[in-house]
Amino acid sequence: MSGTFATHPYHRAVEFNATLRGAALRVFTKAGFANWDGISPATNLLAESIMLPPDARVLQLGCGHGALGVALARAVPQGEVLLVDASYTATTLTPQTLAANGIANARVSGDPLTELPEAASFDVVVLDAPAGRKFARRWLALAGHALKPGGQLYVAGPKAEGIESIISDAKALCGQSATLAYRDHNRVAVATLAEGHTPPEWASEPGIVPGTWAEASVNLAGTRTQIASLAGIFSYDRLDTGTAFLLASAQFRAGERVLDAGCGWGALGIAAARAGATQVDLIDNSLLAVAAAGRNVADLGLTNARVLPSDALTAVAGERYDLIVTNPPFHTGKAVDYDAAGAFIAGARELLTPRGRLVLVANAFIRYERAMQETFNSVETIAENDRYHVLQSPTREPRRREDAESEEELLLVGRRPAERATNGRGRHAAKEKR
């Protein structure tokens, strides 16, 4: 990596020491997923509560930076541990944490969709519950698929993110459960899979059941489109209103190279490819999103589009685009991650052609204008309503007075940058100054 991709704090890998199950360990990590910078209360509760025979086969869903995976592997010296996460960033860091601690009996699944664990083959499944009940149910359904009859499912998470509902779902899936501990507004419980137990209806929903897809028909830029998706992707079963608002405001031009960053199931990239872009790259940190977008691009026969897993923009470092468009997925858990936003906006400037543009949509209360103004020296609000605003920053440098082609343009280039940004459609441009 070079430039912003190498120097921005978001991209900086760090190491810290921790203690789990009474033993010290080293953790390699970086920003990009929930609880990346420490050991969460839920992880501590899981580490303290899990009972493991030394030869157990263990599946951990939501492995993060791998700290709990190290503790689990140490607890089963004659067994093995399979670690799974939907975050591409997490799956690249966990092997480093395992190696730093000399762990040989654990491995990371490279793809939570295609590398399904063998049915009824695990003694214990451990779930550090994600934000979002549908996503949690997808992990629970995978746990039900993987557990042997009589196997145990441990689940933990914060009350503010719905752990009580997730524990209730675990009980419905397995047949019985018990809460083991509660501390720091977090709860841990264990459910035992009863042989012959009938699972709840949600455990058979397409897109939640392992190996299945949720399907939906959406109006995508005026064209009715059939899409496939998975629980765990933002707005997985519909076109969200923010993206629809951006589609109504952005201009996709034939012949451009376009990047859809944080693509989800692929709405923006599909629209750009259909509009005649010469090349569209769709990237996302969610491996579920990458799988869904890849399937949709293939099913729609879009030969001018490709889909890549990416930590922020790193997968396309060195590429150049006329347009970068995004409904930014800048969240870790439920919090807005402005570090990720800053890294993305700064990196976008390096990827754009001299007359390229960055266009993003965000909730009205999320303020990206300052970062865009600092990076591009110009930001316009090209559309807004009571819920969203669509922001645009061009890379175009202010034209010199001697290059102006008309009296009107001469007047325009004679204005200060902030004044130029407020001209025409940019009348709502940000006016923040450092």
List keywords for this structure.
alpha/beta, Rossmann fold, seven-stranded mixed β-sheet, 13 helices, 29% helix
Quick overview of this protein structure:
By secondary structure, this protein is of the alpha/beta class.
Report what the structure shows:
- It is a single chain.
- By secondary structure, this protein is of the alpha/beta class.
- It folds into 2 domains: 201 residues, Vaccinia Virus protein VP39 (Rossmann fold), CATH 3.40.50; 213 residues, Rossmann fold (3-Layer(aba) Sandwich).
- The chain has a 7-stranded mixed beta sheet with strand order 5-4-3-6-7-9-8, sandwiched between helices. It has a 7-stranded mixed beta sheet with strand order 14-13-12-15-18-20-19, with helices on both faces. Strands 1-2 form a two-stranded antiparallel ribbon.
- Helix 4 links the parallel strand 4 and strand 5.
- Helix 5 packs parallel to helix 6 and helix 10 packs parallel to helix 11.
- The longest helix has 14 residues.
- The radius of gyration is 24 Å and the shape is globular.
- The C terminus is likely disordered.
CATH architecture of the largest domain: 3-Layer(aba) Sandwich
The top-level CATH class of the largest domain is Alpha Beta
Poorly predicted regions are 398-434
Summing up helix and strand content along with how strands pair, one would put the structural category as alpha/beta
Write the CATH fold name of the largest domain: Rossmann fold
Strand order of the largest sheet: 5-4-3-6-7-9-8
Q: Shape from CA axes?
A: globular
Task: Please give the number of β-strands.
Answer: 20
What is the terminal separation in angstroms? 29 Å
Mean pLDDT: 88
Q: Tally the helices: what do you get?
A: 13
Strand content is: 25-35%
Fraction in helix: 25-40%
Q: CATH superfamily name of the largest domain?
A: Vaccinia Virus protein VP39
Q: Give the number of domains.
A: 2
What is the CA-based Rg, rounded? 24 Å
Largest sheet, described in full?
A: 7 strands, mixed
